[in-house]
Amino acid sequence: MEFTKGHGTGNDFVILPDPDGTLELTPDLVAAVCDRRQGIGGDGVLRVVRAARHPEGAALAGAAEWFMDYWNSDGSVAEMCGNGARVFVRYLLEAGLAVPSGAAFPVATRAGLVRARVEGEELAVEMRRPRLAGASIAVLDGLALPGTAVDVGNPHLVCPVPAGLELAALDLNRAPEIDPVIFPTGVNVEFITPGDPTGGTDGYVRMRVYERGSAETRSCGTGACAVAAVVLRDAGRDTGVVAVDVPGGRLVVTQTAQACWLAGPAVLVATGEVAAEALV
């Protein structure tokens, strides 16, 4: 089984090219591939398949050639991944499956169509504008942290860290407790504190995230979009640019009246072959 390894600000993925949809991908195989000791290692798997050849992408085949079949590292399926989408697009470009141009081009996902464009050394993807929902809480080591539920095609809970508590001191070795009524399929929980001022932005914040199905990751693209929406709301703004610093680097989120653009580096680091039968 051929693979490519890539990451976006440290959020890493195993990319499996499967243009005609012939690979039998299972939760066990995905979990084995993502195992960091006995597999390749990654926060998730990106299967590259033509939209027309995937049952969940067929309805979008007229609008986009490629479908991003994204799986979390525990073998569960997810609707969307912002960093994954940028790494997916980087692979399409490097593999000659898409041609860079001044115009954005579409990619099909379970959350619908996203558009991508090249911005120098970085890649940006346009996703749905985050939808702010009601308040909820995450409980971490007995500490209840109020937050805002946000829908970015997948569920998020953005929790500011109270003054006096260092972001780095949070123990994210286990999942925060959340309300299963509000989040019946789980939720990505983002913890944020004010970041260093950055010229040309309307907000700046530092973020750590615990992703459902993947545990703590070094970055989360949709999470950065969710955070930006909350930061802008709290600043009394409806649109704007927010810099989000994550353990793996910096993402820049631009929220417009209609959408949300996520920009940052997307890097391919290795290619090879893996013996699938040895993993499971």
UniProtKB/TrEMBL annotation:
Domain of life: Bacteria
One GO CC term on file: cytosol
Assigned EC number: 5.1.1.7
TM helices/strands, residue ranges: none
GO molecular function: diaminopimelate epimerase activity
Region forming the signal peptide: none
Family of the protein in this entry: Belongs to the diaminopimelate epimerase family.
Protein name per the record: Diaminopimelate epimerase
Gene source species: Salinispora tropica (strain ATCC BAA-916 / DSM 44818 / JCM 13857 / NBRC 105044 / CNB-440)
Gene assigned in the entry: dapF
